[in-house]
Design brief:
By secondary structure, the protein is an alpha/beta fold. The protein has helices at 3-12, 88-93, 97-113, 135-150, 170-173, 194-202, 258-272, 281-284, 300-311, 317-320, 324-328, 335-346; strands at residues 34-44, 47-49, 61-67, 73-76, 124-129, 158-164, 182-190, 219-228, 240-243, 246-249, 289-292, 321-323, 353-357, 363-371. The relative contact order is 0.17.
Length: 383
């Protein structure tokens, strides 16, 4: 990843600094269950994610400082190429605030590059989702982010920067009482700390050298360029529409028979991706790729793979599937945003994708990324 060249490109485009009033093109009537995803980038332990660039699954490495209850050093997925930041206050205020700050600062330049696809001077908001609990630490991280944006030409059209602790549902994370149509969603989290590892152990999810399987602690930082949509707004030439996720509460997976788990997953897929009638191409096509959050957990690959084959026999989970946990380990609150970014990275403009969250023992969620260009794609008239 050539950070210097990207930085230079931003500064080449800078204009003389003028006194500009804050953007006022805000709305308060955006839809609450529909978004348009435009582009995204992410930094993961396995490499950089961007449109057309999906890293292969990585191999976890032994941590130098983190141990499991069995006494063995833990295998972890750690982002190596992280910007060095110096703010001793953050380390004193909150255990992992400094790490989150470093991840966020590392991706700022790449995140701002996403705005180049918009018309010049398009105002935008920033929503930051990161599990910062201290108000003082939050203020420091947000101020640094605002200063980094202010140093570029995009500072003049920056609207609000909002921090939300939870980023599991994009519609909830990006919802506003009043804001800009376009929003840069920056999401960061790291489970490479004692508190998050204890939580993984308590939930029975953690992978260990002594037993194998499970999730390895990981981290990631993602930036997604998203458009909040007004009622009736449609007919976009590019991007992907994401409606509210389809979810299903179930008995614990460990207590259900394989057949029942597969059939319940088939029903979930049907709700997220309706069959439609034979003339409705956008509803009968199969996903070009399927992104799954926790493939390494017991039974998940068989459950999802069996349901996909029953629903779409042409899908091969090995060729068409992306296991997020193999690329980033378990990045905590960073999982959902990274899943969407990985889906965008693998898609052609007219192709659609399915994102599945199956980490929970009792709940599954599915989102469909419907390509805006699908209906405009040329039809093959040859027999």
């Amino acid at each position: 990843m050539s950070r210097a060249s990207i930085f230079d490109r931003l500064h080449e485009r800078q204009r003389p600094v003028d006194v500009v009033e804050a953007p006022t093109l805000t709305r308060d009537d955006f839809e609450t269950a529909r978004l348009r995803f435009i582009d995204g980038v992410a930094l993961t332990p396995s490499g950089f994610v961007a449109r057309g660039s999906t890293p292969e699954a990585g191999t976890p490495a032994l941590s130098h400082s983190l141990y499991g209850p069995d006494g063995f050093r833990l295998l972890v997925h750690e982002v190596v190429d992280v910007m060095s930041v110096d703010d001793s206050r953050l380390g004193r205020l909150e255990a992992k605030a400094l790490r989150l700050h470093a991840l966020i600062q590392t991706i700022v330049i790449e995140a701002l590059m996403l705005l180049e696809s918009l018309p010049e001077e398009t105002p935008f908001d920033v929503v930051l989702t990161a599990p910062l609990r201290s108000s003082e630490a939050t203020g420091i991280v947000v101020d640094h982010l605002r200063d980094a944006i202010a140093e570029t030409q995009y500072g003049a059209v920056l609207g609000e920067i909002t921090l939300r602790e939870q980023g599991g549902d994009p519609h909830a994370a990006l919802a506003v009482n009043k804001g800009m149509s376009h929003v840069l969603w920056i999401n960061a989290d790291s489970s490479l700390n004692g508190e998050d590892i204890s939580r993984l152990q308590r939930d029975g999810l953690i992978g260990r050298r002594s037993s194998g399987g499970g999730l390895y602690p990981g981290e990631a930082v993602t930036a997604l360029l998203v458009q909040r949509l007004l009622p009736g707004e449609s007919d976009f030439a590019a991007g992907w529409i994401v409606n509210a996720g389809t979810s299903e509460e179930q008995a614990p997976r460990s207590e259900r028979r394989e057949y029942l788990k597969r059939q319940q997953m088939v029903a979930l897929l049907g709700g997220a991706w309706p069959q439609g009638d034979e003339s409705d191409v956008t509803e009968t096509e199969s996903p070009a790729c399927v992104v799954i959050d926790a493939m390494a957990l017991a039974g998940r690959a068989a459950e999802v793979g069996g349901a996909l084959i029953e629903r779409w026999p042409e899908i091969d989970l090995i060729d068409d599937g992306i296991g997020v946990d193999g690329i980033s380990g378990w990045p905590g609150q960073g999982m959902t945003a990274l899943s969407f970014c990985l889906a965008l990275s693998a898609l052609e403009p007219e192709a659609s994708a399915l994102v599945l969250s199956v980490v929970s023992e009792t709940r599954s969620v599915a989102w469909k990324l419907q390509a805006c260009a699908a209906e405009a794609a040329p039809t093959d008239v040859h027999s």
